[in-house]
Design brief:
The chain contains two helices and nine strands, in the order ααβββββββββ. It is of the alpha+beta class and 136 residues long. The chain has an eight-stranded antiparallel β-barrel. It is globular, with a radius of gyration of 21 Å.
C-alpha cells in the first residue's frame, strides 16, 4: 500500500510537471499571426540621431504571407521564420533579390501591434529602427 501511494504521487508529479508549454513558441506564433497576411509600409526610419520620415510618400513595403513567404517593394522574394533568442523575437529572412542574388538577414522585433510594427537591426555597431504601419 505504501509503494502504491509513492507510485501514485510520482505519477501525478510527472503529469503536472511535464505539461509545461513552451512560452517562446507561443510568443512566436502570436507574432506570426499578427504579422502575416499584411502589407507593412515603412513610415519612419531612425539610425542613431539621423531620422527619415516617409509618411505620405511612396516608400518601401514588405509582405509577410500566411505560407511563411515574403516579398517586398524591391522585388526581393523568399521565406521567413519568427525565432526567439534570449527572450527577443526575431524575423529571419532567407530571400533572393530581383537579380537572383541570395539575401539573408535578421530583424529584431521591437514591437508588434494590430497596425504597427517596429523592427531593428545593427550594422557596424549602429542600430537602425524601422517603423511600419498598415495602410487602409
Amino acid at each position: 500500500m505504501k509503494n502504491l501511494r509513492k507510485l501514485t504521487i510520482l505519477f501525478l508529479a510527472c503529469i503536472l510537471f511535464s505539461c509545461k508549454k513552451d512560452e517562446n513558441t507561443i510568443n512566436a506564433e502570436i507574432a506570426y499571426s499578427m504579422l502575416s497576411d499584411k502589407t507593412w509600409f515603412l513610415d519612419y526610419k531612425q539610425t542613431g540621431t539621423e531620422s527619415k520620415n516617409y509618411v505620405g510618400q511612396s516608400t518601401y513595403f514588405i509582405n509577410f504571407l500566411n505560407d511563411r513567404t515574403t516579398k517586398d517593394s524591391d522585388g526581393t522574394k523568399g521565406s521567413f521564420a519568427i525565432l526567439s533568442s534570449n527572450g527577443q523575437l526575431q524575423i529571419s529572412v532567407n530571400a533572393t533579390t530581383i537579380n537572383g542574388n541570395p539575401l539573408i538577414y535578421t530583424y529584431q522585433i521591437e514591437s508588434i501591434g494590430a497596425n504597427n510594427l517596429i523592427l531593428s537591426f545593427v550594422v557596424n555597431g549602429q542600430t537602425t529602427k524601422m517603423y511600419f504601419s498598415l495602410k487602409k
